[in-house]
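Researcher: I'd like a structural prediction for the single chain below. Treat it as a standalone chain; there are no partners to consider.
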Amino acid sequence: MIFSLCLCYTLGMAQYGTQFENRGFESWAYFGNNANTNEPVHWHSSKSADGTYSGFLSQQIEPSSVVRPGSSGTKSVKVYPVSVVGVTANGNLTNGRMHAGSMSATGSNNYNYTQRSDERFNTPIREVPDSLTVWVCFRSVSSDQEGEARAAIHGDADFKFVSNGTMDPANQLVAIASKMFKRTAMVGGDFVWRRLSIPFDACGPSNDPRYILFTITTNKTPGEGGTSDDMYVDDILLIYNPSIQMGALPQNQYLMGEELTIPFTLTGTMSPDNLNREPNQVIAQLSAANGSFSTPIELGRVTTNTSGSITVTIPQGIFTGEHYRIRLATTNYPMVSEDNGFDISIVTHDALAENEITEVPFDVELFDISGRPVFDGHLAPGIYIKKYRTAQGCTVQKIVKR
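Model: Treating it as a single chain, here is the predicted structure.
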């Protein structure tokens, strides 16, 4: 029987990459000693704001037991506008820090920003995700008003989302994800949730990602919207483009019924945990005898979101041939890998025995199971590997010494 070398690829790679801390808003803490400053850990609003007019701001977020459909958590964050000196202060949630420096809703001294000097108000990142996803339940008086979610990946600066719609410093922008969205229900109505998926546009001008700044607000226009509006936010997740790469196969000839272990590297977000989806499966596929994958044969599958290996069996009853190929496919974010890169021979036991009778070897090597060369003299009991070359090519056999 031809020896099938078992290659176990053990380097696991997480599917989620860099993420926001406390992205399900399950953990809350008081900012300072005041009982009305309860905020999600690493998320902020008006009561942790700085700036000249921060003392005029009221609490605009609170924990809620209303969670998105299918959530495994018990909390979301409720965001709501309030009236400040007769002006509507939009509900505002950010992973950075609010700065209240103007009495004008659109004043250039009002902004959310990355504060690099305080780790509570920044989220480091060194890569650009494919997209940002977040669940929202937005209840508004008006069907015309729109909330907004924005994320900027930027360089090494205290980057700002300014109330007048600009970003500063603009030359530090690496990528932007932005989406405006209408209400999911009327004020006081049902809790209707929507999952937003917002792609990143790597529009530059910087190409040096250092931080990500996210803001979601009850109205895209500062100072507008009704004070009875409310918005619930849950389970934010950065999505990374997935890829699958098949590892090297140990040989180019297999027997029908023989086991084969195929290593693979799987990266990216295969099964987003804020989307109700079954876990991803990796499927090994065998081509037709001519190498075509038009109707592949499934060899086996394994449920996983990360790198690993899959052990399969070459099926009985298929055609013998010398041009088979193997590749891998995934079920979530459907992909197929490149094939193994060389033709594979699949033979029967009878065909192999016939070849061994007619072929004359001219170079024979013998190894123990760890790959060390041994001499075919007085072998101790165990498993050995015999490799020999003939005019027809190279053959590897497993030998069991009892």
